């Protein structure tokens, strides 16, 4: 008779204690989580801008074009000539376009009489020199095209260098 009576008032207490414990755990878990999320993000942002020279990648572009492809084909190449406007190498490390799910920097290499293209982490625009993006050499590829490209359309393509500077090329779509 005494045992069930003791057990009855204890149960709500136990539930309350568990709820408090759960709340404390949740608060305890959330706090360090948001701390660790904020700290590296702040560090990354600081590291991403080592020089205040974000902004424009020092180059001019001529003869930019995106090769028109039939509607069923979902990848294409981008060609252009880049000319450095400053006496320093520019290391291009990224490329993107809103027209494509993915864009890649590529190099064409001949080895053992076989010519093939491979992805590369960077393309270098030499100081006061030019970088030619062409079908026989370095180039940019757009993959997973979001819509069929129409000749006459202009596609923005953004190049990023290792200092975070960007250059957006407005490349017309042209038949090969
Ligand atoms: Cu390619």
From TrEMBL:
Low complexity composition bias: residue spans: 36-53
Region (Disordered): 36-59
Superkingdom as given in the UniProt entry: Bacteria
A Pfam family recorded for this sequence: PCuAC
Matching SUPFAM superfamilies: DR1885-like metal-binding protein
Protein name: Copper chaperone PCu(A)C
């Amino acid at each position: 008779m005494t045992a069930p009576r003791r057990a009855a008032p204890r149960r709500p207490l136990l539930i309350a204690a568990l709820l408090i414990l759960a709340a404390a755990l949740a608060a305890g878990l959330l706090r360090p989580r948001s701390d660790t999320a904020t700290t590296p993000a702040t560090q990354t942002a600081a590291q991403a801008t080592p020089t205040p020279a974000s902004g424009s990648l020092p180059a001019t572009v001529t003869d930019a074009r995106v090769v028109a492809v039939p509607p069923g084909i979902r990848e294409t190449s981008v060609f252009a000539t880049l000319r450095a406007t400053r006496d320093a190498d520019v290391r291009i490390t990224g490329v993107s376009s809103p027209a494509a799910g993915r864009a890649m920097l590529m190099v064409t290499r001949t080895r053992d009489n076989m010519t093939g293209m491979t992805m590369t982490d960077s393309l270098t625009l030499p100081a006061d020199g030019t970088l030619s993006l062409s079908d026989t050499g370095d180039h940019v590829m757009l993959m997973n095209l979001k819509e069929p490209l129409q000749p006459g359309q202009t596609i923005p393509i953004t190049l990023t260098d290792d200092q975070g500077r960007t250059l957006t090329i407005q490349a017309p779509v042209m038949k090969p």
